[in-house]
Every structure is written in structure tokens, then in C-alpha cells.
Amino acid sequence: MSAIGFDEAEALAAHARTLLREARRGAGRSADGARRHRLIAEAMRLVDRALGAPDVGVQTLRAAIESLHAQARDAATTDWHRIASLYDLLAEVDTTPEVAHERALAHARRNAAAPRFEGIACAS
User: How many domains does the chain have?
Assistant: First the structure.
């Protein structure tokens, strides 16, 4: 596939976000499970394509974050390290208080998910 431009990447990402929202709407209904998985898979394909652009924008970064949330079964299986890194990038292009807040939450979740080594004696 050839490289895509910024505007096309943002359009693909906006469409991916729409698919992810649609997938979430039916998340609680088991009959919609196969459809939900198809929507998430299509959204992830679009996000991967959008991330291939030389420059990424707000829609692409938000779609990447949302796709990581969609892939996880719950908060415990969410890839908080990648999400926090994506929020770092998002904060560079979107300096709103909302993004700063979401970034802080992602970093807090990442830090909470980090392995704890308290109580392990170090040999000296």
C-alpha cells in the first residue's frame, strides 16, 4: 500500500472511531458479539492504515487509543503503557484541559498496572 496523506489518515481515523462507537453500543448483548468483533477488526485496520501516514493528528491518535480500549476485555487487560504513550503524543497536538486530564488518568492507570516489587529482599 502506498503512503497516505494527513487528511486521508484523519478521515480514516474518524471512520474508525465511528465503528468503535457502534461496536460499544452492542457490547452488552451476546447476540451482537460477532458483529462487534467485525466492527473492531475493521476499525483496527483503518487505524493501522492511518498510523502509516507521515504525520498523525488528533483523530488518528484518538482512534488508536480507542482501539486499544476496544481490544481489551476489561481495565486490567488494557495496554495502559501504549495508551499513556499515545496520550503523550496527543497532548503535543491537542493542548486542551480534557486531553491533559485524560493523559494524567492514563499515566495513573499505567503506574497502577506496573508490577510491584515491594517486600522482595535484594541480595547485597
Answer: 2
- In the chain, the amino acid numbered 121 is A
Give the residue ranges of DSSP H helices in the chain.
Answer: 6-25, 33-51, 58-71, 80-93, 97-113
- What is the span of the domain harbouring residue 7? 1-71
Q: Is 79 helix (H, G, I), strand (E, B) or coil?
A: coil
pLDDT in tens, 17-26: 999 999 988 6
| Residues 91, 106 contacting (CB under 8 angstroms) | no
Residue 28 binned pLDDT confidence (cut-offs 50, 70, 90): low
Does 57 lie in the same domain as 83? no
Residue 93 has pLDDT above 80, yes or no: yes
Q: What is the pLDDT of residues 32-44, one digit of tens each?
A: 688 889 999 999 9
| 90 and 104 co-located in one domain | yes
DSSP code of 124? -
CA distance 88 to 61: 10
Distant-in-sequence, close-in-space partners of 49: CB < 8 Å, separation ≥ 6: 1, 4, 9, 12
The values of phi and psi at residue 80, to 5°, are -65, -30
Q: Is residue 123 part of a domain?
A: no
